[in-house]
User: Which sequence fits this backbone?
């Protein structure tokens, strides 16, 4: 029996684990103490614990001690580290990926540019890392201008990807600081601090080509993926095929990508990325010498299993599912697949990371929908790693059908406990521009305000904020909790809460377990809450709900979800008793109630905590300002000390969370009265960093 080690975590580790099981292999996972609650650790045959996913020597030793036959690096971490690949193979273990020579040639974006030029593939001019070191900072503007590299500039990490180690710079005076920040981020993410500078194309499309090489100059072209929907240079949604690539352009881009495969004698799965202009000109961007995050859309459209193919090649044979590596052919896509990255981040707060617990986690279960996830309900999104929760992928016969299916899948996905980008993803999939394919890498930034608008109109939010409605939801939640089977200590705790809360309920409440009626028929707040079939699911009906749906204006429904539009139509055309809506309800924190309805999660004040909340607000509403960290993470830099005078906008702290750096600036001018952290400190959440007092 073969023995496979997965040197990764999260959803990709679980994806590779499933493939290894299908081969009948014994599978171990590399892990760290801080990731001890990761689901994959409990699913694998063995856990090989090291101190860091970037510690190549420790990982190689662990693989040797376990007598591994193969190592799959996934993506991120050491997946594109040539030294790691070489160490694995020198240890007599098969590396499931390209050769170390492939990585050195193509894994670094700078060396890849040289190979692309050699093959006649169009590239963008750049000021490379060695030149940045050799030239004085004041010489950079002249050299950039001479090469036709004009503002805006893009500072980019040479190794790795995923938007980390990237900065857009509008002025040469800001280049030095941007290079420092990008270099630090690249080091933390890829163990490689090398960065370079090139011209930034403002609104191109991002189209990438999937290749699979035999290591001898041959290989196959497996179509293109559209990855233009990005924020902060990180992909949000991907699809295959691209809606703007016709057969002729597909062949041209495929041949360019395969020229690189031939030149480097590339082995295994790889992706050649291009920037595509409105005039159908394309420029080589980079080559990712690994499996991509978005590989599922290619698998669904072309009927291949890329991880299986990687395993077969690592065993020394050409994958049976792939065409001949000696004849170039253009594949014919079967339908359209679209992938949405479900992330722990808050798009309405500048896409800040939002690590935290997963009190509720429910995946969609629909025909044509695939979910690759790295978490389970009751777990957490760890602030030490990236923000990925899951990938939701829809596959249908046409692009319109795939968009519709993905939108429905996202509406059937529920996460409570930490903020996610689910409403944002839902808004994108239902936007006319996206449905019609009118997008670019700049599209999200240009439409951020409308994409971040609430999916639930204000009158409906106000309905759920009503005290009697919140009491109905809270009571139903507590009743269901006390009727379920818990450990004795938890059961007693929940029951005690329920008893205390019962005193707040109206005497008109129906306390049967089948439902809870609050309010009379004359009240708009009339609501009936009944348990659903799934955990945390409830069914809502009642006169008050019907009335508020009937009063929603057509304008408020323009950007709402399909299910809300359908509910409004049903409210107008059906009897009140027949209208029943699904929602999910939980109590992730003591003073809050969370309800998900129409793809939006509302965080409401727990009905019996209003006095405490008002007292907290009164204490917090003082002239002095406490600067708090917006999320859990690590303090990298502290730029101020007690007694410093600061002006609004001054840089005070640099934090790191989920491999991203965040600069915290002074919200107003004042005197720093107390700095409570120092570099290296780990923050558990919205901790106070410093106090800024009025000088008067």
Assistant:
């Amino acid at each position: 029996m073969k023995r496979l080690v997965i040197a990764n975590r999260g959803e990709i580790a679980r994806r590779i684990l499933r493939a290894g099981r299908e081969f009948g292999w014994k599978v171990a996972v590399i892990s760290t103490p801080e990731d001890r609650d990761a689901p994959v650790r409990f699913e694998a045959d063995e856990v090989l614990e090291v101190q860091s996913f970037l510690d190549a020597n420790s990982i190689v030793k662990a693989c040797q001690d376990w007598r591994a036959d193969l190592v799959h690096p996934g993506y991120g971490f050491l997946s594109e580290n040539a030294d790691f690949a070489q160490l694995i193979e020198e240890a007599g273990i098969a590396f499931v990926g390209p050769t170390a020579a492939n990585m050195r040639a193509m894994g670094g974006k700078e060396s890849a540019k040289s190979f692309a030029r050699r093959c006649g593939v169009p590239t963008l001019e750049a000021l490379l890392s060695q030149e940045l070191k050799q030239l004085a900072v004041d010489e950079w503007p002249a050299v950039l201008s001479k090469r036709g590299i004009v503002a805006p500039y893009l500072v980019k990490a040479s190794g790795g990807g995923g938007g980390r180690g990237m900065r857009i710079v509008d002025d040469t005076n800001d280049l030095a600081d941007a290079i420092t920040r990008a270099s630090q981020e690249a080091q933390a993410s890829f163990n490689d601090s090398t960065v370079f500078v090139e011209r930034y194309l403002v609104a191109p499309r991002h189209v990438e080509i999937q290749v699979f090489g035999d290591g001898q100059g041959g290989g196959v072209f497996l179509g293109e993926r559209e990855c233009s929907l990005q924020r902060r240079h990180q992909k949000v949604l991907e699809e295959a095929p691209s809606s703007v690539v016709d057969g002729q352009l597909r062949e041209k881009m495929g041949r360019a990508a395969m020229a690189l495969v031939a030149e480097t004698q590339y082995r295994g799965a790889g992706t050649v990325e291009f920037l595509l202009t409105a005039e159908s000109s394309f420029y080589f961007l980079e080559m990712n010498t690994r499996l991509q995050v978005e590989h599922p859309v290619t698998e669904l459209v072309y009927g291949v299993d890329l991880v299986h193919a990687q395993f077969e090649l690592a065993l020394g044979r050409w994958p049976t599912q792939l065409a001949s590596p000696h004849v170039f052919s253009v594949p014919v896509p079967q339908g359209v697949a679209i992938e949405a990255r479900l992330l722990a981040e808050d798009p309405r707060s500048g896409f800040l990371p939002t690590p935290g617990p997963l009190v509720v986690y429910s995946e969609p279960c629909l025909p044509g929908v695939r979910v690759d996830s790295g978490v389970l309900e009751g777990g957490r999104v760890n602030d030490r790693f990236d923000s990925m929760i899951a990938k939701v992928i829809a596959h249908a016969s046409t692009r319109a059908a795939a968009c519709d299916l993905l939108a429905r899948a996202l509406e059937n996905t529920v996460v409570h406990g930490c903020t996610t980008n689910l409403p944002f993803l839902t808004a994108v999939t239902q936007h006319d521009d996206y449905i019609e394919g009118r997008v670019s890498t700049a599209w999200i930034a240009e439409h951020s305000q409308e994409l971040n608008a609430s999916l639930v109109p204000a009158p409906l939010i106000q309905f759920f904020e009503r005290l009697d409605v919140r009491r109905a939801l809270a009571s139903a939640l507590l009743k269901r909790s006390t009727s379920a089977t818990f450990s004795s200590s938890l059961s007693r705790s929940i029951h005690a809460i329920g008893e205390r809360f019962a005193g707040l309920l109206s005497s008109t409440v129906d306390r049967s377990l089948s439902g809870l009626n609050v309010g009379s028929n004359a009240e708009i707040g009339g609501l009936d809450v009944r348990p659903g079939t799934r955990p945390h699911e409830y069914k809502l009906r009642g006169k008050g709900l019907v009335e508020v749906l009937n009063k929603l204006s057509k304008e408020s429904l323009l950007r709402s979800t399909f299910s809300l539009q359908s509910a409004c139509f049903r409210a107008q055309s059906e009897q009140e008793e027949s209208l029943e809506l699904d929602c999910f309800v939980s109590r992730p924190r003591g003073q809050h109630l969370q309800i998900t309805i129409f793809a939006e999660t509302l965080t409401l004040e727990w009905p019996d905590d209003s006095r405490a909340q008002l007292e907290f607000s009164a204490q917090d509403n003082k002239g002095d300002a406490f600067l708090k960290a917006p999320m859990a993470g690590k303090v990298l830099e502290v730029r101020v000390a007690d007694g410093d005078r600061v002006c609004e906008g001054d840089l005070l702290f640099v934090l790191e969370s989920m491999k991203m750096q965040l600069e915290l600036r002074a919200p107003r001018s004042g005197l720093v009265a107390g700095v409570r952290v120092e570099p290296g400190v780990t923050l558990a959440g919205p901790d106070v960093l410093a106090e800024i007092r009025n000088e008067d």
Observations:
- The two ends are 75 Å apart (CA to CA).
- The chain is about 30% helix and 25% strand.
- The chain has five domains: 3-96, 125-200, 336-451, 458-611, 622-693.
